[in-house]
Structure formats: structure tokens, C-alpha cells
Amino acid sequence: MLRPFFTEDKTEAGCDEVGRGCLAGPVVAAAVILPKEFDLPLINDSKKLNRKSRDILEKEIKEVALEYAIAEVSNHEIDKINILNASFLAMHLALDQLTQIPEFLLIDGNRFKPYKNISFECVIKGDGKYSSIAAASILAKNYRDRLMEKLSSDHPEYDWQNNVGYPTNAHREAIKKHGVTVYHRKSFRLLPTQLELF
């Protein structure tokens, strides 16, 4: 069972992002403020949950959360500022949407760019340790998966409905055969050799 909060006396927002390692599509982040009495025993790191469980938990999170927000940064912006900065930007954009300013930020991972002088704590594999980060990971993953499935209808050859943009063999074979789309991250190593892609 995950820990309910990091601080006992402050309003916390848990933040997480998904899609950093993808070859196509945006990076998506979510920020979630949960009530201190929050209790969903099944909540966990989104990567450890199947789609059905994530869908159920997403609905419950949105019902009980004090606030939540989701933001994306496009592949074009990723190519301009790099994936690490794009991940920070996505989290900042999600936090910008919260009407209640949190007093403390709980960040998944080991690095973060400070936001509005709010104190924060980076937690490696935090989505498997704290409920608010896990909640953010679920909202961000479901949002991004649905987006990639929608984009897949126009580009079925890349199998995004299954790989959601990650570098699977099928995805890379499609890049080799069909080239890149406007959704691919050109700053990423899309193939072992960057020949005749652009």
C-alpha cells in the first residue's frame, strides 16, 4: 500500500510525466492534489496496472481529488528544448492549471526545475511509493494512451494503438519502411542509423 502523503501539515501536489522514452507524440504530465483522508488501496504505479484497472482508478481519482490537471508538450517543442526540459515544462503547465496553489510538490524522479518557489521533494520511483504521484501517473498515462490511439487511426502502420509511440520493433520497422510523421521526435535516435529518414 502506498504512503498517503509526504508532509502531514501541507497541501501537496503529486506530479508525474509519461512518454519520455517515446519516439513519437508529446510528453504528458499530471498534477494531483488528494485529500489527506484519501484511501484507494488499489492505487499504484500506472505501469503496474492494466488498462481496466487504470480506467476504474482514473474515474475514482477524478471524483475524490481536491484538484487535478493534465498538460502536454508537443514533439516539436521536445525537439527544441530537449526531453528533460520538456518534462519539466509539462509538469509546470499542469501545475499552472491548479486553482489551489499547493504548498509542497512531490515529484516522481530525481530531478525537477523549481516551480514558483514552492518546496518540493524528488522521489525515485515515487509512483510506486506515494498515492498522489501514482494518481498523477495514472491520469497522465491514460490521457497519453488515448491520444496516441487517436493519432494511430491516421497512421496505423506505426502500431501506436499498441506501442503508444515507444520504440518497439514494429514501430522502428515502420519508420524504416514509411519514414517519419509530423508526430515523430526528430531529435531522438529513431533508428540505429539515421539514413534517409528526413
What does the model show?
By secondary structure, this protein is α/β, with parallel strands linked by helices. It has one domain (12-152): Ribonuclease H-like superfamily/Ribonuclease H (Nucleotidyltransferase, domain 5), CATH 3.30.420. 36% of the residues lie in helices and 16% in strands. It has a 5-stranded mixed β-sheet with strand order 3-2-1-4-5, sandwiched between helices. Strand 1 (12-18) and strand 2 (27-33) form a beta hairpin. It is globular.
Number of helices: 6
Query: Structural class given helices, strands, pairing?
Result: alpha/beta
Number of structural domains: 1
Strand content: 15-25%
As a percent range, the share of helical residues equals 25-40%
**CATH fold topology:** Nucleotidyltransferase, domain 5
N-to-C order of helices and strands: EEHEHHEEHHH
Calculate the mean pLDDT score and round it.
Answer: 94
Any idea what the shape is? globular
The name of the CATH superfamily reads Ribonuclease H-like superfamily/Ribonuclease H
